[in-house]
Amino acid sequence: MVTVAPQETSRPRETRAGSRTQGNRVLIVVVILMLTVLVFLPTALVLVRAISEDPRDPLATFTLDALADSYGNPEIWGVLAQTMAMALTCGVVATALGAALAWILARTDVPMKKLFELVVIAPLFLSPFIGALAFLELGAPRTGLLNQLSRELGLADWLSINVMTFEWLIVILALHYVPYGYLLVSGSLQNMDANLEEASHMNGRGTLQTALRVSLPAIRHAMLSSVMFVTISATGMFSVPALLGANMSFKPLAVTVYRATNGFPSDYALAAALGTMMVLLSVIGLWIYQRGLRQASRFVTVTGKSQNRKKILLGRAKYVVIALLVLYALVTTILPYLALGLSAFSTSTNLDEIDFSAAAFSEVMASPELVNALGNTVLVSVVTAVGAVAVGLLTSYATERVRYRGSGLLNSVAMSPLAVPGIVFATGVFAMYLGTPLYGTLTIMVVAYIASYLPHATRVTGNGFAQIDKSLEEASRMCGASQSRMMATILLPLMRPSIAAAVIMVFLFTVREINTAILLYTPDTMLLSILSFNYAQQASLSSAAVVGLIETALMVAWIVIMRAVLRPGKLQERA
User: Fold this and answer.
1) Do residues 144 and 549 touch, judged by C-beta distance below 8 A?
2) Sequence-distant (≥ 6) Cβ neighbours of residue 463 within 8 angstroms
3) 99-109: string of b/e by CB count within 10 Å (b at 16+)?
4) Partner residues linked to 312 by β-bridges
5) What is the pLDDT of residues 99-117, one digit of tens each?
6) Is the pLDDT of residue 385 over 90?
7) Nearby residues of 270 by Cβ (< 8 Å), 6 or more positions away
8) How far apart are CA 260 and CA 69, in angstroms?
9) pTM of the model
């Protein structure tokens, strides 16, 4: 009996361990297959199409003409230099403003911090294109509302603005990306040890010297990561330059790719060749970004006393800071929404002829195009949010919890869409599904969106897994629970805040997305973002403004619904 008992108890354990191992292998295979179809093949086809003469059969005939035309053209290199100047300047400006706002809200005694935190991230609810449209209504050279007001008040001509210039293009893009800079920097500031700054103050250093010599060096890698992230995103931005750059000689690479694809005759090989240049730039930026994240661990300053940080007393400067925050809200949120509202609910944006009317709003709402676009947008955004988070959960679980060789490579593949601008990735998806039953359907758009936002879902859910102690899973297994039951009863409930954040974030990004959809949509698969772009291209700015307001309402409604359904805050309340 003594020898039999251990065998009887060990067999179930061995069986459970074997079944877990087999389950892990199946999971890894499933994740590899999903990433191959979603990410690897479309990205590879971008490169293949750059050396192919026939876009319908990329493997038929190979040629280097398109690559030679792209890489050997001095004009293209000039466009590349201007694109990089635009994107890098945008990254630096957005990060500087975001870091300054993060420092004010994290270090000073400025009042109403919760309100101002919402103010800082409010531009996220306005798509880049709709935000640019609002700025066009405000700062067009002759018809802009601010310019009209300036002339009415008799102000000097030099106070007038013209948003259809290269400088204002950078400013508008940077203002859109400020929330990203704030979110990427604020976490490092909040986790930084307060003793470092207090020691600096005790040694006679002032607030400015402490910020420059202590705080800034401690968060410089977070700031570098922010600069690279924004630069990569701005490099692939198509919609804003296409709208504001109509009268400029400067055409970014993303716009050049769009024109090569949608021009007559279409030159898909040239578009793919230009895409390889953008991918190369993004890969370099992504490498610097990830290197910054890795090296940030050398500057760990988190201690148990960080929450007792002494706030910097602003004194009379408090009113100046509040005024600057109000100005930020005015420029990034209040004025743009006022301009959109005036355009949507007035027969004219001329200050002398303003006549409030809901005619334009009613006309757009009654349009069959809007009904089709709204239904498609809700369906595509919901399926994309759920699908991206599901794939992200499986991928992050495979890389964070299952130990095997090649997990780092798998994670790199999942994050690689960050290095491929949306309009370039769309050319790969287009080539992959051209001639198949999926071409011209909503399914192809969902596939492209899931792949595009998989890095965001993987990053958020991966952070959630990293915060959960593995001992909880081990205790569940020791009690005899299967892997599926352990995930359903322990991991997923604890992951609810991360899942809620990922689902909300991917939905918001999908509703606003134009760069990927612009090459994949058809009249039957129209989306709200494309509908607003088409209205603007037809000079129907009031209709485009109406669609932009509907987009914002849809995003706010989704946040309210998801917070009610997933209730991410309940977990912290029980804890």
Assistant:
1) no
2) 498
3) bbbbbbbbbbe
4) 108
5) 889 888 877 888 888 888 8
6) yes
7) 66, 69, 70, 260
8) 13
9) 0.79
